Amino acid sequence: MFTTASNSSWDGLVDCFSSYRLVVGLAPAFDLIRFHQFGPACQLEKQLLAPEPNESGSGSGNLMMSSTQVAENITQDDGLVTVSVNDLIVGRTMNFPIYDPHGVLLLAENSEITQERKRAIIQHGVPEVRISQEDKKRVTMNSELANLKTNSFGFDADLTKRIDTIIDGGLMTLKNDGPAVKNDVVYLGRKGYDQQRRQKLIEQHKSNGKALGEMISEVMHGEKINGSIVSNMAAHYLKEMTTDTDNTLTSVIDQFKDDDIASRSMEVSLLAMAIGIEMDLDAVNARHLAVAGLVHDWGMMKVPVETRTAKTKLNPLEMLEIKKHPIYSLEMLQHVSALSTVIPVIAYQVHERINGTGYPRGRRGQSIHPLARILQVADAFVGMTSVRPYRPAMMRYSAMECLIRQARENYVDPKVVRALLRVQSLFPIGSFVQLSDDSIAQVTRRNQDHYTKPIITRVQNASGELVDREADENLIDLHEEESLDVVRALPTPGSNEINYSEDTYHSNLVAP
Ligand SMILES: [Fe+2]
Known about the structure:
globular, 3 domains, binds fe (ii) ion, Hypothetical protein af1432
């Protein structure tokens, strides 16, 4: 079940998704960046089209210089050095202009380096650029950084070696000895949430969050703790999940004001478990997945607080610090008793990517544990839809868009994203949508394979008046209601959620 999806079936899904985007009027997700999409600060196109300078030769600075003139200037200037475009650090501002090897101005002085600009320069057939010596120090990766191995940071090399041996020794296969939990999941159709059960769940999340926080703190102080506490939480959540998956999943959203590791881990854990169940896991594996979700990010607490909570883009050294956190988690889990041996493996591999661009080891495809591949998608979805110190939360629909594209571009396992779609629907449960009759609704339940037609609760009519959410007529199965469709995904009312863009897509790829 964890093999890569066939291209044809995945393309079918993507095609459906793309055409759906056209219907809802959003920009296509898979557009290539074109040069004219640059803002005014990127001057390549302007440079090539710019008029000749005026008689005094002053023009308007670099923007008005012809290519020939720039080339002449460059050949006279031996203060420039050649660097790879890949080495330019996104977010840094150039004090001096960037030229191509023929002397054509690519980026004016005082321009910021962005992911889009780098990609566009490369797509234009320019893999290397000429920049000033002064800028080189500031805006490129120090080549020595590339030689640093994770072990140079003083990790317990034996521990990571042991885990690598386990991984290489064949623990990467997944065996389900028991029946699939999915057989026991109750399909509830248009049934509303049991509010009493929901309230109880919310209280449990709060006490579990507190218990998790205390466990993390104890391990940070070097104490040994009993892992059966987290195993019991997982067993309890498994029961709730089979009774009402949608209610269980939505009960944890927005319950915690603080973006602390314990509470975010609970959301990740529940979502991963729901995806795993959808992928036919048995109870043992579903519980392993949930436990791994609860403990996988503890190592973040060992990352310096100023890096963890930075409000600006991280520099390469800070990013390296972040990339150590799965190894810190691995070390911390040595202090937790009664954990299955697979849990540290999952925690260690949660940030690997199937195309080898992840960390800490850059493992690929089948070398990443199947449960880690599930947890990775759940972790990414929750990460994108959470407020981070450096950006607001992303709309839940937009996070789904990002993951679908990541699956297509081979960052994450398409099978897992497909299961996520079935668990959440394309308009994830809990998110708000506009319907074709102009009313507003909240997605209440998934609708199995009809992921573009979830079960929704109408919350506001076309005139903008609130409606009775509990009334039967406002609980609608969009698959059955043929005349009604979702036309637009909306941000959560009162939030400043951001939507999909090339920038958000690429910045999420490098987010911790
Ligand atoms: Fe993490």
